[in-house]
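Subject: design request, 322 residues
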């Protein structure tokens, strides 16, 4: 019998890639989102345009038992969206409402396996002040002190999913994503993540030109290509480990270094100009000790390979606009 999956947030970047992977595995897939993916045609067998904040819509989407449910829908974006403070109420209300609705509907349909995508933004700010030695081990989450309301909502929702495991016998799985990037993702408009923004800036810049980078550029991060994220996501959902667990790369770089890598791929002579802007924490890097232990897996693709693929794709997208 053909297996079935539901992907909430299927019109988004990671959700779109997840749908493709599940289709390649032979699943019948239903996707739901506020919009279709702007960059790639969906491969979902059934795609519903709808708002998961509305209980009636959620009931119509979760109208059967699915073998696997992936809950990626959220109100989110890059540093320019989640760290300014201007969207805090919307971020917390919208994402929490989606999670409450989807999880309860799954419980009432006796759906056991639900994946929830949390974020490294839930880690305590005080453990991420040193850009050279951030602590993002899973057990460092408490005492809790996320640096943004986005992180606080993620932490609440983690606890929500794990509470449903304890109280209702569900088998939800929780992962903390660390800066996922790649083709078919947002690359302009204010919600794009750092790798996509950097690729766009470099692709647009003239040879001999200048690109702007927020802060002093010494803040550190790690970035994971989306194909590896999807692999880790599926492995976790089908495992006996509930999490939370990091899904990210341990290849940490400064933001200036990230810019330099993209400039190198472009073959252009471009200068970096550091300017004031929203930064988030000073340092963040995935700790993959636990995922190696529990799933016998960790991502291996080097950052430069993912950046090369992403830069080529964004450059091609820009040319379509000319």
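Subject: RE: design request

Done. Sequence follows.
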């Amino acid at each position: 019998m053909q297996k079935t999956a539901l992907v909430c947030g299927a019109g988004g970047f990671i959700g779109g890639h997840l749908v493709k992977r599940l289709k390649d595995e032979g699943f019948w897939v239903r996707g739901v989102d506020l919009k279709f993916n702007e960059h790639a045609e969906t491969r979902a067998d059934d795609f519903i345009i709808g708002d998961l904040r509305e209980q009636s819509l959620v009931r119509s989407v979760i109208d059967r038992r699915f073998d696997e449910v992936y809950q990626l829908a959220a109100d989110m974006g890059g540093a320019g969206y989640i760290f300014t403070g201007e969207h805090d109420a919307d971020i917390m209300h919208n994402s929490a409402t989606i999670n409450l609705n989807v999880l309860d509907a799954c419980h009432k349909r006796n759906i056991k396996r639900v994946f929830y995508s949390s974020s490294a933004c839930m880690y305590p700010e005080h453990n991420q002040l040193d850009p050279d030695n951030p602590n993002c081990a899973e057990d460092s989450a408490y005492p809790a002190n996320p640096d943004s309301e986005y992180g606080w909502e993620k932490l609440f929702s983690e606890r929500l999913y794990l509470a449903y495991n304890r109280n209702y016998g569900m088998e939800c799985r929780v992962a903390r994503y660390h800066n996922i990037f790649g083709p078919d993702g947002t690359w302009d408009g204010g919600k794009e993540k750092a790798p996509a923004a950097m690729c766009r800036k470099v692709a647009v810049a003239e040879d001999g030109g200048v690109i702007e980078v927020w802060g002093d550029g010494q803040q550190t991060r790690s970035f994971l290509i989306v194909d590896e994220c999807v692999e880790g996501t599926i492995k976790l959902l089908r495992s006996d480990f509930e999490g939370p667990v990091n899904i990210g790369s341990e290849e940490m770089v400064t933001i200036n270094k990230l810019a330099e890598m993209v400039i190198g791929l472009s073959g252009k002579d471009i200068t970096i100009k550091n300017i004031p802007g929203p930064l988030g924490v000073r340092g963040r890097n995935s700790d993959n000790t636990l995922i190696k232990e529990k799933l016998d897996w960790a991502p291996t693709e080097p950052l430069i390979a993912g950046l090369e693929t992403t830069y080529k794709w964004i450059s091609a997208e820009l040319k379509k606009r000319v």
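The longest helix spans residues 88-108.
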